[in-house]
Amino acid sequence: MISSKHRPTVATVDLNAIRANVEAVQKHIPQRAKTFAVVKANAYGHGSIEVSKALLPIVDGYCVSNLDEALELRQAGISKEILVLGIVLPEEIDLAKKEKITLTVANLDWLKEANQKDIDLKGCHVHLKIDSGMGRIGLRTLEEADQLIANLLEAEVKVDGIFTHFATADEADNQKFTEQLQFFTDLVGALAYKPAMVHASNSATSLWHSDTIFNAVRLGIVIYGLNPSGHALELPYPLKAALSLETAIVQVKKINAGDTVGYGASYKAKEEEIVATLPIGYADGWTRDLQGFHVLVDGQFCEIIGRVSMDQTTIRLPKYYPIGSKVTLIGQEAEQVITATDLADQKGTINYEVLCLLSDRIPRYYKN
Could you give the CA distance from residue 344 to residue 346 in angstroms, rounded to a whole number? Predict the structure, then answer.
């Protein structure tokens, strides 16, 4: 999708805030722990290449979702370790080896498939994924882990790490977290061969369970300055949201009592009102469920009225503002602020999804 640079809808990413957020976490975790920045999904909508380059001096490596995201970083000149957290099919092993990309191995069938296709595994770097209770990818028993590691070593694969992922580290109830941590700790402790890097700490674990960190952390949403728990837990120290989203008014008109706005005529004016149109819609990730939410104009909350369209959104103004007037969708204006978490509350989702939905049609500009 082409970036729409000739309209006033833009996202601004503060790279200084991103660096400061990483450094804030690093001050509160063990000094020996390596830091891996999670830049999957275009760095949660912030721009994977720009974020990765900004963090080069202060992180040890990067985590991505798939091989193509890893290749994007390599092509941009990122030479530090890149770990693919998802499953890469055996057919792509040669490419991963060529580009020095570390893969996740999560089951014995993956190795069986590679052997059946006579794929050369020698020199491939991998981390093992353990399913300690998340229920997605990963090995579930010590016996499977020992067998897989032994078979990989026999094939001259470099088994560099082992990791798991917590399902409830961002919740107040610690029972499930404690169960997963114990399972993973016991399994790693009993391995016949223990890989050098052991990691289980995502953003939430790094914030609220730093005493449980092994020797590496995977920092995701915390890098971008947002609370992984939404409102469930208070941040133990300040972070700064890195992304703001702004647009501008492109039309202003008066409507009369009884006039309707938008598809389905879902909004009817009760009196004479001033209505403005904004050039952003659900094709940009500004979704239909935001009807009834608000934006900021001149430091004042203005309600979104009528259904959000594919390319346009309508708002009710308290008074006339001229075409070109700034509108804040995410960020601070005067004393008021709208956060990605506020949007998530309106949408019934999480701040991660709000940011990831912002489409490539919105250009990103970077403050360094």
Answer: 5
How many residues in the chain? 368
According to the model, what pLDDT value does residue 119 have? 95
SS (H, E, C) the chain: CCCCCCCCCEEEEEHHHHHHHHHHHHCCCCCCCEEEEECHHHHHHCCHHHHHHHHCCCCCEEEECCHHHHHHHHHCCCCCEEEEEEECCHHHHHHHHHCCCEEEECCHHHHHHHHHCCCCCCCCEEEEEECCCCCCCCECCHHHHHHHHHHHHHCCCEEEEEECCCCCCCCCCCHHHHHHHHHHHHHHHHCCCCCCEEEEECHHHHHHCHHHCCCEEEECHHHHCCCCCCCCCCCCCCCCCCEEEEEECCEEEEECCCCEECHHHCEECCCCEEEEEECCCHHHCCCHHHCCCEEEECCEEEEEECCCCCCCEEEEECCCCCCCCEEEEEEEECCEEECHHHHHHHHCCCHHHHHHHCCCCCCEEEEC
Angle at 83 between CA 158 and CA 112, to 5 degrees: 50
Q: What is the pLDDT of residues 77-98, one digit of tens each?
A: 999 999 999 999 999 999 999 9
What angle is formed at CA 18 by the lines to CA 12 and CA 19, rounded to 5 degrees? Answer: 135
Q: How confident is the model at residue 1 (pLDDT cuts 50, 70, 90)?
A: confident
Sorted by sequence, the CB contacts under 8 Å of residue 302 that are 6+ apart come out as 276, 294, 295, 296, 315, 316, 317, 318, 327
- Phi, psi for 271 (deg, rounded to 5): -155, 180
pTM for this model (two decimals): 0.95
Q: What angle, rounded to 10 degrees, do the helices at 15-26 and 48-55 form?
A: 50
In this model, does residue 296 exceed pLDDT 90?
A: yes
For residues 329 and 319, give the distance between their C-alpha atoms in angstroms, rounded to a whole number: 19
Q: Residues with catalytic annotation?
A: 40, 263
